[in-house]
Amino acid sequence: MDAMTLDDIIGWKPLLTDEERTIRDSVKRWVTDRYMPRITDDFEQGIFARELIGEIAELGVLGANLEGYGCAGASHVAYGLACYELEAGDSGLRSFVSVQTSLAMFSIWRYGTEEQKQRWLPEMAAGRAIGCFGLTEPMHGSDPGGMTTRAVRDGDDWLITGNKMWITNAEFADLAIVWAKTGEDAASIRGFIVEKGMPGYEAHNIPGKMSMRASATGSLVMDQVRVPDANRLPEAKGLGGPLRCLTNARYSVGFGVLGAARFCLDQAVAYTQERTQFGVPLARKQLIQQKLADMGARIVHGCVLGVHYGRLKELDALHHVQVSLFKRDACQTALDAARDARAVLGANGITTEYHVIRHALNLESTYTYEGTHEIHTLALGRALTGESAF
């Protein structure tokens, strides 16, 4: 019989609108034509393709699912599908878009003043201003409420002091959404727009990464940075502000990693059809088919769930526990798929020629960032039992 594609098995067509299919197809073409020819070199050199930011913006994916201010106003499903195709290229590419859109731009769009929105969002949608999201600290990853970064009022300004770690886009960001305590407890957490060039503000690269090498990941160091009160996000109060931003971003992470999983499956299927062992294609071997079938089934489940949860998000009915489930399950699915694809390719699976090992390395990070697998497990466990195990 003729082979079916994973898209055939998912059955995308009746699930998506014409606009959603168009957005997905345009991003997929761009990734294939413009990004894939350079990603191996970028990954090996440890650089992010900054010169392509203008082209990424032209795709309409920066602020894609936000309304107004130069943003595309696309559906959440369309944005999820864009992330799906971006991460089929590389997790670093999707992370750039997710941080710009779902964290930095969303923070301003949801919590900022009209003046802040007018100043920053059109520039960010066009890729002329790049943002990052400063929440995680060196000693406070899964417990952001324990942050030590402080903002002290000084007249009409705030003096911010503290360090943030593992910040995507940090090195070249024009602004950082920085979360800091204005008092002693988590209820005092507020968000600030800290601009590049403000005295006392520095961004540094994090060297030695073996994962997310084609992503600009850095740290923020702030020493008495004077930030005007006009740069405070007035609608964000307490830990709920940054956590709602993370919930918003985790949807794009979940859909994105499934794109990496699909890429790995496609590579494994093509390889087994071409590679001959014991006189027949590998694809004819039962154990190989079992791996491919398991990979495909889990990816299909994730994609259908992604569309369903996207529709709930469009109705403003998506619960944060559902997002935790989606992010947790999708990242596990993607990491398992990359590892299984590597095994199917044998020794060839560890070379950059087939890209699978690059995805496997990247997905080790997605398994941890924006809420570790374990934290999302506890969130789901708490929802099912009513008991907190944190």
Q: Could you write a compact summary of the structure shown?
A:
The protein is of the alpha+beta class. The protein has 3 domains: 120 residues, Butyryl-Coa Dehydrogenase, subunit A, domain 1 (Orthogonal Bundle), CATH 1.10.540; 103 residues, Butyryl-CoA Dehydrogenase, subunit A, domain 2 (Beta Barrel), CATH 2.40.110; 146 residues, Butyryl-CoA Dehydrogenase, subunit A, domain 3 (Up-down Bundle), CATH 1.20.140.
What does this 3D model show about the protein?
51% of the residues lie in helices and 15% in strands. By secondary structure, it is an alpha+beta fold. It folds into three domains: 6-125, Orthogonal Bundle (Butyryl-Coa Dehydrogenase, subunit A, domain 1), CATH 1.10.540.10; 131-233, Butyryl-CoA Dehydrogenase, subunit A, domain 2; 240-385, Butyryl-CoA Dehydrogenase, subunit A, domain 3 (Up-down Bundle). It has a four-stranded mixed beta sheet with strand order 1-4-5-8, covered by helices on one side. A hairpin with a 2-residue loop joins strand 2 and strand 3. It is globular and about 80 Å long.
